[in-house]
Amino acid sequence: MSPPPIVNTVNLVRIYQDGGVPVPAVRGVDLKVEAGEFVAIMGPSGSGKSTLVHMLGGLDARTSGEIWLDGSRVDTLSESAWALLRRRKIGFVFQFFNLVANMTVADNVELPALLAGASPREARERREYLLGELGLADRADAAPAQLAGGEQQRVALARALANRPSLLLADEPTGNLDSRNTRDVLRLLGEVHRDGQTIILVTHDARVASLADRVVSLLDGQIVDDGAVGPVRRRPRASAGDVVELRS
Amino acid sequence: MSTARASARWIRADLRARRGQALLTVLAVAGIVTALIVSVTLLEDGTNPWRGLFTESRGAHVWIHTGDAPDVTALSRLPGVAEVAGPYRTAPVTLTLEGKKSPVALRGMEARPPAVATPLVRQGRWLRPGDTDGVVVERSFAEALGLRIGASFPVTALNGASHPLTVVGLADTADQGFYPEWTPGLAWTLTSTLARVEPALGRSESVTGLRLVDGEDTLPAVHGAVTLLNDQIRRMSTWREVRAAMELDNRLLGLLLALFGVTGLVAAALAVANAVGGRVLTQTRDIATLKSLGYTRGQIFGLLTVEHGALGLLGIACGLVCGQLVAFFALDGVPLLPPSPLPLLLIILGTAAVVVVAAALPAWRGGRTPPLPAVPAAPPRGRLSRMARLALLVRLPPALVLGTRDAFTRRTPALLSIFGLAVPMMMITIGLGCWATLDDFLRHPERVGQAAALVVHPDKLPAEEAARLAAADPQVRAVYPGAEVSALEPEQTRTVLARALGTSAEPYPFRVAEGRMFAARGEALAGQGLLDLLGVKIGDRVRMTVGGTPLIVHIVGRVVEPDQDGEVLSLGMDTLAAKDAVPPQFYSLVLEPGADPAAVRARLLAASGEKLEVARVVNPADRLSVIRVVIVALIVVLSLLGLANLLTASALGLRDHALDLAVLKAMGLTPRQVAATLVTGTGLLVVLGVVAGAAAGASVVAGLVDLQGHTSGVGAGIGRAPSPLTLTVAVVVAVGAALLVALIPARRAARAQVPVTAR
User: Fold this and answer.
1) Which one of B16, B282, B290, B292 makes the best mutation probe of the A interface by having the most chain A beta carbons within 10 Å?
2) I need a surface site. Which of A17, A58, B77, B384 has the fewest CB within 10 A?
């Protein structure tokens, strides 16, 4: 029996109320994402792609439908239960980085690990590892405002990965970056994906989406196209050797 | 536990980012707790030395002054009487030190200290059988005159004979209040010495103390004593008067501090709530980020409450320490009992509750921040109102118009800011009003019933001669004969002061606050304290016993009476029986405006060949000068509170309009105009708050001072609002300082590169 998909949504609907007028943002989305998949969600502005990932991370409440995460139903969770779930299973990367302005880079990255119950030593080791991997080891004591946009987004990525989440949600992670930084961030996303990380990435940029295994196109809150880019690769997480295959 | 570690990181980082504001919160709360603790210490009996002295000396609850020695056995059988002290023979003598004469009650004692109402020797020693020239002096009296052990104590008896005595000891007592509030000063000597100084029994009196089983219940014993001794009683006092005499000034100060403390607490709560609320608004994105990382609503609430509440608690801890220190140093020399734990606990818990609630309410709102950081927390937008468009049309500076509009984009925080500035400003105005009242005391003593600047006692000259000399001085406008006698109100079993000054035809210029001046024999004026004591009102007739003679007076008015807790009956000399009024005991001199009392005093002394005794009248404001220190300290604390509110308002304004800055610049506003827009936004709130606070303060201050005057017996009619000039200066200084403080971040923001991100 195959393991349950990491993400499974059933007829997911989100309707905003704008001055009493219902505005549907997501209209009946069925989406399955298997472990280790890298899914790009594409669509024009207002197609509901950001709303969709926010609902997957519990930042926004669904109007109707079901959300299953790692085999358990989560759309019925309370706000607090979602928060606890996010600590362990979900990492977020946002367009505007959303680093805590008053905290140093190191504290920003260690915060989720501490929140999830790691000891200060474990959190520090994990942070040193991540920042080292992302080439930011020497900026650990800097304030976020002192970093360039690309560097900030790399810190945000390190923070999102601090707790080894089952699912990495990236909402327009390159939307605010120049092309060089975009390339850097995408290369990093590719690397963590190769290490087995499941990623759902929202973008309106086809070049960014081309990096993914699979591209889901949304229009007016509905999936209009769901296609794999190349053969669907389904691999056990973090198995060695796959890197070669991906690079080919 | 895990959240605690993460939260600690956040709190540390956040506090580091806003050290100044955090420090302000701590200081403001500390200042208020200090004020509250000092006020409790002052209001409690802890600072009133009476309690300690009375217990230590096993004091007598009632003191009876009689002509001859009373029947001690009969007195000790009175209901409720446990023990009897005395009777002690006491003679009035005059102490002459460096030309200054002070009346002294010289009391004859045995070499063995008594078991009841024991004088507590603090320095030197008690009298010994061989001390024929030794005298033990009451400590406050000795301190006022600068007497030390071994100092000479030359006294003159009524027959004019001088006796050189020597101070052998200083002692505390609960028999009477401190000098100079309570005169004459008290000194103890051996009975043999007293017999030598004043051989005539008729010129001395007998003093007997009654120690009661239950001090609260003095009436049966007092009634019994009055019935038993009847005509012999010259004067009586109970422990309540002694206690009141010892506590008067502390109490007023304590009440003032309590008023400032409690209102300051409200202001502090507002400041904390504003600070946390402003912080939550400016940190909406960070809080949302924390939520996206896995903070729950409750944890955000806890995080914010702990951070801001902890600052308040730190302030409380500092205030506790400061309060003890201030109380210790301010009451230097007074045997201080620590304040009892209950009020202290109440202050700590009350302040803590207020601070935590003030922090928790906005923190709760912070907890409800949606976890979607992308949603911008933009202020509610509004179109330019018609007023604003009209203002722009008539070419008012655009910075002014835009700033005015910005000030109210967030209604509730704007109102909270105004209120948060108005409350400290109101208290500052009240403080200035107290100051003005004190100034008024000094500048116009006649308004507090002290028209006379000098009091002349004929001493060695005939009374007529003294009056003639005084009237002859060119700067003396009027001379009023006067006499002070004790009046006994038998039903009330209390002795009050009856002060006769001037005559019905030519009355002394009393400050009549209600009713009218006495104009005929048998009419009198009363202080508020006396009206309250007797439970009478203007127009009533009261039967008093003055020097053994019944006297029925018609109270026709109320005077402002700063002495004796207002328990003074003022009347004309012609109303008194001749034996009390002729010759006058003293003359009160009203001087020409601008005359220097010291110069007149010197001239009078010279003219009489030093035979007159001329004393300057002590202004009550001189006793209350410590209040000025308190007012200054409180103004500092309140300014801190106002500053805290101002910083919040300024930060919030900057944050709300950070995005607009680029637009404003694009529209063609110069950096200076941009800064002016931001300053106007904050400044308008400041002006509204400061003006509202000053107006509120000025309208209530006179009433508040009068209320205090009423309860302390002085009586209403002394309160003064600060002068328009003072008030204007205070408002201008407050607004000016606020604008300067607001200008610094505004200029920085106007010059800074406008950020491209949504932040």
Assistant:
1) B292
2) A17
- Looking only at the bridges linking them, the beta strands covering B549-559 and B512-515 are antiparallel
User: In this predicted model, which residue has the larger pLDDT, B731 or B330?
Assistant: B731
Q: Is the dihedral of CA B698, B699, B700, B705 positive or negative?
A: positive
**Terminal-residue alpha carbon distance, chain B:** 32
In this structure, what are the phi and psi dihedrals at residue B265, rounded to the nearest 5 degrees? -65, -40
Using CA atoms, how far apart are residues B475 and B471, in angstroms rounded to an integer? 9
How many contacts (CB atoms, under 8 Å) link A and B? 97
> What is the model's pLDDT at position B624?
67
Lowest mean pLDDT among A31-40, B237-246, B618-627: B618-627
Q: Is any Cβ of chain B less than 8 angstroms from the Cβ of A117?
A: yes
Q: What is the pTM of this model?
A: 0.67
Instruction: Give which of B431, B441, B447 is closest to B721, Cα–Cα.
Output: B431
- Residue B757 predicted with pLDDT over 50: no
Coil/strand/helix, residue B284: helix
Q: Do B605 and B631 have their domain in common?
A: no
β-strand pairing of A222-228 with B541-546 = unpaired
Q: Which residue do the tokens 């998909």 mark?
A: A5
Name which of B398, B402, B407 is nearest B384 in CA terms.
B402
* B600 & B456 share domain: yes
Q: How far is A114 from chain B (nearest CA, A)?
A: 5
Give me the CATH number covering residue A31. Answer: 3.40.50.300
- Output Rg (C-alpha) for chain A, integer angstroms: 18
Q: What is the pLDDT of residues B345-380, one digit of tens each?
A: 888 898 899 888 988 888 888 888 777 754 444 445
Q: What is the dihedral of CA B275, B277, B283, B286, to 10 degrees?
A: 120
Q: Which residues neighbour B756 within 8 Å (Cβ) at sequence distance 6 or greater?
A: none
Instruction: List CB contacts of B579: < 8 A, sequence separation 6 or more.
Output: B547, B549
Domain end call among B567, B585, B618:
B618
**A169 contacts chain B (CB < 8 A):** no
Higher pLDDT among residues B291 and B49, named by residue:
B291
CB atoms within 10 A of CB B735: 18
Q: Is A121 exposed, middle or buried (0-12, 13-18, 19+ CB in 10 A)?
A: exposed
DSSP label at residue B448: G
Between CA B672 and CA B303 the distance in angstroms is 39
- Whether residue B3 and residue A95 make contact (CB cut-off 8 A), yes or no, is no
Among B339, B362, B377, residue at a domain's last position: B377
Domain, as residue range, for A75? 7-97+165-247
d(CA B685, CA B413): 10
Same domain? For B589 and B612 the reply is: yes
Over the stretch B431-487, which tens digit does the pLDDT of each residue have?
A: 888 888 878 777 777 777 777 778 887 766 777 888 888 888 888 888 888 887 777
Nearest to A204 by CA among A25, A16, A38, A47: A47
Number of domains in chain A: 1
Please indicate if any CB of chain B lies within 8 Å of the CB of A120.
yes
Helices and strands counted in chain A (H then E): 8, 10
Q: Is B298 exposed, middle or buried (0-12, 13-18, 19+ CB in 10 A)?
A: middle
A227 within domain boundaries: yes
- Which residues in chain B have Cβ-Cβ distances shorter than 8 Å to A16? none
Q: What is the largest CA-CA distance in chain B?
A: 102
Residue from B141, B135, B114, B131 nearest B57 by CA: B114
Phi, psi of A195 (to 5 degrees): -80, 5
Q: What does the alpha-carbon distance between residue B555 and residue B541 come to, in Å, rounded to a whole number?
A: 6
Q: Taking CB atoms and an 8 Å limit, are A107 and B3 in contact across chains?
A: no
**For residue B162, what is the enclosing H or E element?**
strand B162-172
Q: Do A96 and B759 touch (CB under 8 A)?
A: yes
Whole-angstrom distance, CA of residue B140 vs CA of residue B147: 10
